[in-house]
Amino acid sequence: MSPRTFLSAITGAAIFVTIPSAAIAGPTAEVVAPPSLDIWSQTVFTKLDRQFRSPVDTRFQIMPTGIVAVKFGCSESGAPSAIGLYKSSGDRRLDRATLRAVRHIATLHPLPHGLGHDQQFIVRVLFANTGQGAERLVKQMQREASSSNAWYNKRSTLTASIEVVPLG
To answer: How many domains does the chain have?
Structure first.
């Protein structure tokens, strides 16, 4: 399994996957409700995964492990803005690859209801080279995301990959 596939498979295990219905916009189309935080998080992570390029040639090196956290905003155009490293994985290659992937996301629109362009977000990306190590890190990511998002939605939901940072 390639490092990218392994990353996607492991991270996907930490998320409740919900596929939104495709909305077809036309001249007489009704206004489509904004996505839920869970659906939006999954959509953003899918876009991130498409942009990700493995920083390690695993034919010659063992894939390092860790969790990279990148903080960013959403510009009026929908592109990620004010992108910066929030928490390092401890490996500069993993950190740079994650920062690059966030920079290359085309749009974060539409945003979930109640979130605006002044909001800051954190995406956490898991890198693991064993299933056991991945399970431990996935649980850590779930706890951190659930705790961070408790203010947004009082129901117990897990977003696993995306955190919304409260304003103020």
So the answer is: 1
Domain presence at residue 26: no
Output the pLDDT for position 77: 94
CATH of the domain at 44: 3.30.1150.10
List, for residues 73-93, the tens digit of each pLDDT value.
999 999 999 999 999 999 999
Decide: 2 and 52 in contact? Cβ < 8 Å: no
Q: CA 163, CA 145: separation in Å to the nearest integer? A: 5
H/E segment holding residue 105? none
**Both structure tokens of 100:** 């690059």
Distance from C-alpha of 157 to C-alpha of 68, rounded to nearest angstrom: 22
Cα angle 166-66-119, degrees, rounded to a multiple of 5: 15
CB 67 within 8 A of CB 91: no
Yes or no: say if 41 and 148 are a contact pair by the CB < 8 Å rule: no
